[in-house]
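Here is an idea for our session: we take a single protein and study its fold together. Which protein we use is up to you, so please pick one and set it down. Once you have written the record down, we can walk along the chain together:
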Amino acid sequence: MKPWFVIVVLCWSPWVSAQEYPRQDVNLNQLADEWYGVPDQDLDYSDLYENLAQLLAHPLNLNTASEEDFRFIKMLSEQQIKNLIAYRSNQSNFISVYELQAVPGFDVETLHKVAPFVFVTDPTIALDKSFLERIRTQSNNYMLVRYGQSLQHAQQYSAQADSASRFTGSPGNLYLRFRSSRPSDFSFGFTAEKDAGEPWRWNPSQQYYGADYFSFHAQIQNKGRLKNLVLGDYQSQFGQGLMLGGIFGIGKGGETITTVRRTNIGVLPYTSVYEAGYLRGAAATVEVNKHVHITGFYSHKRRDAAASADADDAFISSFQNTGLHRTEKELAARHQIADQSWGGVVQFKTGMLDAGLMYNRVDFGVAVQPNPAPYNQFAFSGTQNQNAGGFLNYTFQNLTFFSEYARSLNGGAAGTAGLLWSLSQQLDVSMLFRKFAANFYAFYSNAFAEGSTTQNEEGFYGGWKYKPSRRWTMAGYIDLFRFPWLRFRSYAPSAGHEGLLRVAYQPSRTVVLFVEAREEVKARNASNTSPLYATADGTKRLFRFNIEYGVAQSLHLKTRGQLSTFTFQGKQTQGFVLMQDLGANLGSLEVTARYALFDTDDYDNRQYVYENDVWLAYSMPAYYGRGVRKVLMMQCKVSRALTLWLRYGYTRYADRQEIESSAGTIAGNVQNDIKFQLRITF
């Protein structure tokens, strides 16, 4: 099969060069549509998803990537992964990304979808050069400098503002990032960020290095029996994330199959600016023999927390995860508690079986004692938590089984089990069962769940995806869940469900259309005058339609509408957003623009929408209220080594004369924001 394919690749070389994908400019907009669920928690999703975007910016080597690596990009079915691995084993190494067309089950659409995330190493390049020489000649080296701010200053920056709420720093957001890496060989770099309102200061004794947040890492891989060593900041993903889960878990979205299973990819460098999701110290994976790997890790860092005012009886009432240190109160919570975590994983893999045992212990420097509330009677308290558990994954033909069980030695247990099944090349199904005790505690977990923590939940998920032809795709899921104990804003045991139906039509590479309907029913506290708490079901329905089309080779348009309703105690409220996007490729200059109209009755109908942003930044704001939003972004490739981005956003509200948000209070109904980014590659 190889000879004819080499001839085809050589004959198509002009087409290949014209269609080569920019490895560092993945279409995150399309991934957001396909992967992510509609957010319903009041979290900073931009920071969470930026972590995943940075990991996806480093493509996989087609000739060395494992099954878990291919599962991580969430684009291939179990059947396609199996066919790819079998083809690689039978035909030796790939000579081009475009050879994927020769793999059974891969068509042109799949190739174009996967191509930005994979690469093939030049066979003439070997590891016989020195480490420093490989850094200089073979690595991906870049420096990012990003600056952004709102042109309207919040009242909290004023000298007349109350001292407790006054921001102590400048209104600009500054981001610095350097990374040098070569896949499966090494990686090192740092990330620094000063949020808007934070001061710029230098005080190493208080972990201030100019910017308020500073992260660094150094990693080497595949050095004999040492398969992986990370020093500095890192994240870990083992099993299904009950105990050790990185912050790149994906919720329930348009992709109903592959996002259900967490990927068992081990330890990775941490490069995000989300300040609550990393470990800091050292982690290493050693190969004992062909089938057994042992991973050990140690971390010691300080976490933000609300401390008691009584010095004689010091304790922590709650952890603070915003990462913001602008006011005196926020600064007082900075690095208030020591977090020491250590543990290990013994992993056994042979053929289609992947299993492991895990242990993790977390020690806090001060006792954790939450403020009493009806819903948190099972919340963690004390100075130490220990978890032990194991995972088991097995693939048989077109069926993949995955599971994990974990127990807090001073509390309850958590378990999850599921399967992915390619019934045919057209039909895939997924199922997952989960059960988390109310007194199961894991501080670095990220399992598939309805709630924001791996605690107090039981549920069953069933998903399907059917592709009757190359042009049509239909998908859906139903998730049934219950909460055995009270939750925040729901002071009674409750149950609910969530379902989705999505139909997509792609008549050509330049035209994509989908419609989607989603419903979620979940209980919350009802408004009443009784001293007893009562709950009622709230029903959220969301309808979306989207059409993307290429007018010409250099012009791309997208139209989208979202409509939601929320019904609670007999009252229904609504919200909608209508958007028009435009993208133009003018050679070295790329321009994208958006015009959006939104109108929501209340916060329950806020509309989360992905916005195009600069490279490695992820923007998913919530449109709330009534107004108009405009975004213009330009990317200019000045030279092979220098790329510039400029982004401008404009929001005008028709229902207020004062804009309040977590960034502060702005007088007036207009907010403008700018962002500038410079990337230097060398």
User: Anything to note?
Assistant: Residues 1-25 have pLDDT under 50 and may be disordered. The domain at 2-126+141-681 is CATH 2.40.170 (Maltoporin; Chain A).
